[in-house]
Backbone:
């Protein structure tokens, strides 16, 4: 069946329908990872977006247990070639069946690198995936221009508190769309991890007297999270050690008077170099974000830059002045290097007083 990807600037790509055949409007973004398509699909930070994979062959090892959440989150999936006969000893199914099962529409057979060049040159834009060959662009255009991701954090967060038992430090993890490996990275280091829904009040968390607080990654514009930012401010004002990743990093910055802005096309992939300004060492990081913290509006009495993106100079982390708080824009729980920045979890445990 034919499918079409229609961008809001009028560009149209024709390909083949994969997954669900329903029509969808979403924000079109691209990911440059060569592997890890299942982790991309199940990363809650992609809620409200349709993902284009730049690597040309996707699905060749099928569906395995390498999922970052219990279900896929993107609105749509865009690939050059979808492997329909996967080969891997861990394979449990095809990506086509996975997309159909979860009602995610997609398109294959288009020039994904040409699409990526358009998004890099003109910036991230909205688009529609449809199987309707008789579409009328003038009718579609208002829908494309009106689309916004909105409050996707409420969509992806857990519904109730859960606990991962451990014998070490007690960590409260605020789930804004947390990838499973964040809690696992802490739990593997002995921590007892209590996972809280995104809209949990600061008072509820602090009354349990945790040794540390983790603010997770998540989707959308951080400025759409007003009530959460108010609670993060209360957590900042406590003396509890805090470590934040991705959206959590942005929310802490907004809660302390800094600002954020949207990148032209974002950072999404597994090969982004970041420099630790304390040691001068460069790490290869996994990233998935469309917004960054403005360092030119940063009060040094509140926080100072701790990491910088080697490619474009944007902020990748902050160290908070006079506080046991540090935050990073990238994903230290991911393994692109393969374990380059996992030491940040060890640093967090040291902030909490070290392992018991």
Residues:
């Amino acid at each position: 069946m034919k499918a079409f990807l229609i961008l809001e600037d009028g560009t149209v790509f024709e390909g083949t329908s994969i997954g669900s055949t329903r029509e969808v409007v979403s924000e079109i973004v691209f990911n440059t990872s060569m592997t890890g398509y299942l982790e991309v699909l199940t990363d809650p930070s992609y809620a409200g977006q349709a993902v284009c994979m730049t690597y040309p062959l996707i699905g060749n090892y099928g569906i395995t247990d390498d999922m970052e959440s219990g279900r896929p989150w993107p609105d749509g999936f865009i690939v050059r070639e979808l492997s329909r006969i996967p080969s891997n000893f861990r394979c449990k199914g095809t990506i086509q069946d996975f997309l159909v099962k979860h009602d995610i529409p997609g398109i294959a057979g288009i020039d994904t690198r040409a699409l990526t060049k358009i998004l890099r040159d003109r910036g991230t834009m909205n688009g529609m995936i449809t199987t309707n060959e008789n579409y009328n662009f003038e009718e579609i255009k208002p829908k494309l221009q009106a689309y916004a991701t909105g409050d996707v954090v409420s969509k992806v967060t857990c519904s109730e508190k859960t606990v991962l038992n451990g014998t070490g430090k007690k960590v409260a993890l605020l789930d804004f769309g947390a990838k499973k490996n964040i809690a696992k990275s802490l739990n593997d280091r002995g921590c007892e991890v209590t996972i809280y829904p995104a809209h949990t009040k600061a008072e509820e968390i602090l009354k349990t007297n945790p040794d540390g607080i983790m603010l997770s990654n998540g989707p959308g514009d951080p400025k759409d999270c007003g009530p959460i930012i108010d609670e993060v401010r209360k957590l900042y004002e406590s003396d509890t050690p805090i470590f934040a990743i991705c959206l959590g990093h942005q929310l802490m910055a907004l809660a302390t008077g800094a600002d954020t802005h949207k990148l032209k096309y974002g950072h999404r992939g597994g090969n982004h170099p970041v420099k630790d300004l304390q040691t001068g060492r460069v790490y290869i990081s996994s990233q998935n974000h469309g917004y960054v913290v403005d360092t030119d509006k940063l009060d040094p009495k509140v926080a100072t830059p701790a990491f910088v993106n080697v490619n474009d100079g944007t902020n990748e982390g902050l160290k908070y002045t006079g506080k046991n708080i540090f935050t990073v824009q990238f994903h230290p729980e991911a393994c692109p290097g393969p374990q380059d920045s996992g030491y940040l979890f060890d640093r967090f445990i040291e902030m909490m007083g070290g392992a018991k």
